[in-house]
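User: structure tokens for this one?
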Amino acid sequence: QVQLVESGGGSVQAGGSLRLSCAVALYTYPFTSYYMGWFRQAPGKEREGVASINTDGLTFYADSVKGRFTISKDNANNTLSLQMNSLKPEDTAMYYCAADVNGYWTTGSLLSAGTYTYWGQGTQVTVSS
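Assistant:
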């Protein structure tokens, strides 16, 4: 069973930055074996993929955050991060870290919530105008 714990959320004004972290506790496979992603869900909306990283370190982003968000994976410290710059009010949501291993995935599916088995509890990000 994989445990994911997010941190780093908070309130910021539009144009500001936040850095989210996801601490990962693994019990079965090496951290490098996991493909991972960040998702967000605003009230009344479906959960959407924000950024993902595969086991080769390739990254993928939703069009809405390209050029503003950067996902990174620290294999030495079992941590996934999301650097968020130039934040907008529409970025306001609960942000979740997700992970999986040995499952079936394609490049196109890494931003789909159904691709992942393990989820954190989420961290709130609020951007005011």
